[in-house]
Specification:
The protein contains six helices and three strands; from the N terminus they run H-E-H-H-E-E-H-H-H. The chain is mainly α. The protein is elongated.
């Protein structure tokens, strides 16, 4: 049911995310349906396991799928409502709010860029 176009300019993990979301939207995958393991899916699609892992993590973050320990990965009960979750829109809003606060405090755009670049380059765990 999932097909990946290796020649497409769209990143492989993004293709996988979109394919899973489409299957949920069309009702081919329903809430609580099991998904193949990362190992099995990467083998079937001839993808690196890290690519599948990245897709699964992003889908889990958006509550489209859920991992239940050793029992496996399943379609989230609220997957249909969460399909339109857009982290990019949220990030834009959060960044704009923060930038506005920094500007109101008197920081210049140049200072904000330097601080942002420094913050991104700092490793945190």
């Amino acid at each position: 049911m999932i097909t990946i176009d290796l020649d497409s300019p769209e990143p492989l993990f993004n293709q996988l995310i979109n394919q899973i979301k489409l299957a949920i939207q069309k009702g081919l995958l329903k809430p609580s349906d099991p998904l193949p393991s990362i190992r099995k899916l990467s083998s079937e699609l001839d993808l690196n396991a890290k690519t599948v892992t990245k897709a699964f993590r992003l889908l889990e973050r958006d509550k489209v799928i859920e991992t239940k320990g050793y029992r496996g990965t399943f379609v989230h009960p609220d997957a249909l409502q969460n399909l339109s979750s857009d982290i990019h829109e949220w990030l834009d809003d959060q960044l704009q709010e923060t930038i506005n606060k920094l500007r109101d405090a008197g920081a210049t755009d140049s200072e904000i860029r330097i601080a942002f670049k420094k913050a991104l380059s700092t490793q945190t765990n």
